[in-house]
Known about the structure:
Blueprint: H1 5-22, E1 31-35, E2 42-49, E3 52-59, E4 64-71, H2 74-87, H3 91-101, E5 112-118, E6 129-139, H4 149-179
Antiparallel strand pairs: 1-2, 2-3, 3-4, 4-6, 5-6
Amino acid sequence: MPLSTLDRQLIARFRDKLKARYAGDARFSSVSVDDRRDESSFATRFAAAPHVWVDVVLRPHIPQLRAGIVSDDRWLNADFEDAIEASGDTMGEFVELGFEEAGLTWRSPIVEHYREISEDSASGSGQPATFFYFATAFELANLNALSDAAVFDKVCRMLEGYYEAFRPTIEKIVAAAAAE
């Protein structure tokens, strides 16, 4: 079912608010979007390091918000996997600690770790891109929930929590890129 004009306006306002919240945030060098042409997902990405973003993805037809960390580099993905393994925690426990750093209490959140080949990006180069994700989702009652301050706060804390969970690895990636 196609999105209505009102749906698109709700989505645009939500994304504008998200971008405004992190404008000038020293943790992120830029913001980009990666949306599917069929409007099945809208990704807002904040660059945390070369080839590493924290993002918020809206899947309006479910409806669902997802926050996580994503890379288009399989070796950086391996660095994230190594950080989790070295912690001795499960993925959920690892991310839970990041969420706590960001002020969100969520015991053992479900963390999806997957690879996606994106051939349907509206922003795209026309070339398929492979992305590696660690992400946590939560369902929305409906798209009107995008206007709810509590929903906005939760997804921002999730985004910041993913950053905090992986911050030491992100900082190493940034330092290595600066040294090149």
